[in-house]
Amino acid sequence: MNEELGMLYRSIRLQIMDFVTPDMETIAVAATPLWTVHDVIAHIVGIVEDSRNDNMAGAPSDAWTAAQVERGRAKSLAELFEQWEQDAPDFEKFLSSQEGQARWRVVCDANSHLADMMTALGQPVSLSKDFLDWAGPKVMAMFSEAVAEQGLEPIEVELSNFEIVRSRFGRRSAEEASAYAWSRDPGDYLATWFIFGPAQSSISEVEAKV
C-alpha cells in the first residue's frame, strides 16, 4: 500500500478543495476542538507546511496542531488552498516513499476532517470506498494487536469500515461504541478502542447511502 498513500491523499485533498467554499468558513465543527471550517483547513494545510519545513517536534500534540490553526488565521481560504496545491505534490511523493505510522495517519486525518465538516454542515458523510477498504481493516488489525499485547481475550465486533474508522478516531462516544455488536462485554476494551479518546457526546452523524 506504500505507493498508494500519496494517491489516497491526493484524492481526499481534491475532494476537500471541491467541497469547501468561502461561505462555510465560520461554521463550527463539533468533532474538533472548537475549530471552524477555516481552522480545520488551516490545520490540514499546516501539516503539509510543517512537513516541508521539518517542523515535526511535538507532533501530533494539541500545541502542534494549535500552532497550525493560528498560522492559518491570517490567510484566506483561497490562500490556504493555493499553499496546499504548491506543497502537495512533494508531500504526496513523501507519503508514497514508505509507510510509516505518521504517513498513514495523515491520510486518515484528512478523511476524518472531511467527514467532520460534512457532519457540521448537516450533510450525510461520503468517504471514498478505496480509502475505507484500506483504512477499516488496518485500524481494526491494530486494535486486535493492542488487545493481544494487553493480555486480553480476543474480541470481535460487527461494523462497517466507515463505522470502524469514524469510531476508532474518536468520532463516537463511549456509549455509542458500547452499543456495537461485540462478541463479549466491551467494557475492558474501550480504552484501547479509541485511538484519541471518545467523543464527549454523539455528533449525530449519518453515512451517505451508496
Structure explained in plain terms:
By secondary structure, the chain is mostly helical. It folds into two domains: 2-120, no CATH class; 129-193. It contains nine helices and four strands, in the order αββαααααβααβα. The chain has helices spanning 2-19, 37-52, 62-72, 77-97, 101-120, 129-149, 161-171, 174-178, 190-193, and strands at 28-29, 35-36, 157-158, 181-182. Helix 2 (37-52) packs across helix 3, helix 2 (37-52) crosses helix 4 (77-97) and helix 6 (129-149) crosses helix 7. The chain is globular, with a radius of gyration of 17 Å.
CA radius of gyration is 17 Å
Query: What form results from the Cα inertia axes?
Result: globular
Topology pattern, helix = H, strand = E: HEEHHHHHEHHEH
Distance between the termini: 25 Å
Largest β sheet strand count, sense and barrel closure: 2 strands, antiparallel
Strand order of the main beta sheet, please? 1-2
Mean pLDDT: 93
Low-confidence stretches: none
Helical fraction: 55-70%
Number of strands: 4
Number of helices: 9
Structural class: mainly alpha
How many discrete domains? 2
Strand fraction: under 5%
